[in-house]
């Protein structure tokens, strides 16, 4: 093969690879970033204000669906047990295609257990940097520490943090794929 044929072949292959990369980027290859849930935002499932109830928050971006009152952005939730995961299950069954599911990442938060009339509760951080990918978390369910509206499901990006939390406050550690309707229903009954 002569030099000219080699260079022409290389240029064609490079252009094809670049076009493939650009197509992936243009077709939504990037994942949306989480948004801050500050400023008096209300849960898209039950309409309750995010923040005052304590516990982990969630936000779910879908490829083709947005909340009716907003032109873009995620659906957001003030509790995982009573809103975030039930909403996810329901809409997964409807065939909604998820871009990303974010939850509070307590491994990335300097948290302190809050004492409330209803018992001990986790705080409710709402800043952008306090969220992580729900599918990569280790969760503690069934602990003595409440979340928003009652029983908590506390997410940690570091498995060791989740295990330490469970050792201190009870409960069991699970990963995203272990959480189904039955698991969430059992938490609700506690």
Question: Would you mind describing this structure in some detail?
Answer:
30% of the residues lie in helices and 24% in strands. It starts with a helix and ends with a helix. The chain folds into 2 domains: 30 residues; 131 residues, no CATH class. Strand 4 and strand 5 form a beta hairpin. The radius of gyration is 21 Å and the shape is globular. With 190 residues, the chain is of the alpha+beta class. Helix 2 packs antiparallel against helix 4. A 4-stranded antiparallel sheet has the order 2-1-3-6, with helices on one face. The N terminus is likely disordered. The longest helix has 24 residues.
Helix and strand arrangement:
Layout: H1 3-26, E1 58-62, E2 75-77, H2 80-93, E3 98-104, E4 114-116, E5 119-121, E6 131-133, E7 138-147, E8 150-156, H3 159-169, E9 172-175, H4 181-188
Antiparallel strand pairs: 1-2, 1-3, 3-6, 4-5, 7-8, 7-9
Helix pairs in contact: 2-4
Summarize the structure.
The protein has 190 residues and is of the alpha+beta class.
The computed structural class is alpha+beta
* Percent strand: 15-25%
Instruction: Identify the overall geometry.
Output: globular
Total number of β-strand segments?
9
**Helical proportion?**
25-40%
Domains (count): 2
Low-pLDDT residue spans: 1-27
Calculate Rg over CA atoms.
Answer: 21 Å
The secondary-structure element order is HEEHEEEEEEHEH
In order across it, which strands form the biggest sheet?
2-1-3-6
Distance between the termini: 73 Å
Mean pLDDT over the full residue set? 86
């Amino acid at each position: 093969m002569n030099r000219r044929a080699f260079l022409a072949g290389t240029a064609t292959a490079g252009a094809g690879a670049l076009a493939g990369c650009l197509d992936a980027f243009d077709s939504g290859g990037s994942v949306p970033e989480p948004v801050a849930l500050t400023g008096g935002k209300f849960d898209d499932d039950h309409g309750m204000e995010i923040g005052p109830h304590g516990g982990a928050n969630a936000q779910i971006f879908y490829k083709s669906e947005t909340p009716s009152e907003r032109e873009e952005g995620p659906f957001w939730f003030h509790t995982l047990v009573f809103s975030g995961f039930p909403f996810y299950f329901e809409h997964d069954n409807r065939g909604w295609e998820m871009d990303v599911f974010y939850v509070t990442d307590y491994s990335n938060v300097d948290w302190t257990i809050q004492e409330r009339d209803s018992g001990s509760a986790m705080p409710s951080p709402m800043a952008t940097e306090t969220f992580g990918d729900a599918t990569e978390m280790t969760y503690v369910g069934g602990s003595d520490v409440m979340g928003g509206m009652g029983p908590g499901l506390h997410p940690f990006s570091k498995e060791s943090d989740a295990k330490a939390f469970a050792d201190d406050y009870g409960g069991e550690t699970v990963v995203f794929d272990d959480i189904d309707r039955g698991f969430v229903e059992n938490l609700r009954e506690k």
